[in-house]
Amino acid sequence: MKMIDLEMMRREYLKDGLHRKDLFEDPIAQFERWLDQAVKAEITDPTAMTVATVDAEGQPSQRIVLLKHLDERGFVFYTNYESRKAQDMADNAKVSLHFPWHMLERQVKICGVAERVSLTESLKYFSSRPAESQLAAWASAQSRPISSRQLLMKQFNAMKDKFKQGKIPLPDFWGGYRVVPTVIEFWQGGAHRLHDRFEYTRSDDGWSIERLAP
């Protein structure tokens, strides 16, 4: 089989520039603007974000989750509290998020500290999920080895039978994390690899903004 010539795969980024005068002073407001534009552009899964964690031995790991809430406090996602990512965050709460909006030639990187959301917030979101998704949270011992797909479906059907008579409760091992941002970078592709990058950094005095070389 002929190998793909990776060195020759390239394209120019020619959509839009990004200028300091066009940025909100608040990075959350700037993110909301870009997210709204990504949704309107009908990008597939515009809320999909990579979550990067580091385990106790210093090994980084990444996975994609969905952003489920955003406000001035930070970026919220939900997971199993016994999953690999949760174990990593228990050892090192510093994480990084990444939104790859390739269609708009944009990306956003967030660095911050993860903390659990309140039980009320987790319950509110869990209750909004389809019943099948609620059952899946009960059925899956996330990140642990499992012998087969058949066993996973057996566990799912067992949970379906267990809770068939009423409301599905929130598992005590499942809930949300809020990533409280300390640094947020907005990247807009530019011609000749001269991209526009602006980094917001939080301090006691608020947010500062500086342009970064591409």
Automatic annotation (TrEMBL):
Which top EC class applies here?
A: oxidoreductase
Say if the entry is tagged with keyword Acyltransferase.
Answer: no
Q: What Pfam family does this protein match (any one)? A: PNPOx_N
Keywords, A to Z, come to:
Flavoprotein, FMN, Oxidoreductase
State the PROSITE patterns in the record.
PYRIDOX_OXIDASE (PS01064)
A single MF term (Gene Ontology): pyridoxamine phosphate oxidase activity
| Cofactors | FMN
Query: Sorted alphabetically, which InterPro entries does this protein's record hold?
Result: Pyridox_Oxase, Pyridox_Oxase_CS, Pyridox_Oxase_N, Pyridoxamine_oxidase_dimer_C, Split_barrel_FMN-bd
Query: Which regions span the lipid bilayer?
Result: none
Pyridoxamine 5'-phosphate oxidase N-terminal domain location is 35-157
Family of the protein in this entry: Belongs to the pyridoxamine 5'-phosphate oxidase family.
Protein name per Swiss-Prot or TrEMBL: Pyridoxamine 5'-phosphate oxidase
Which organism encodes this protein?
Answer: Pontiella agarivorans
Gene responsible for this protein = pdxH
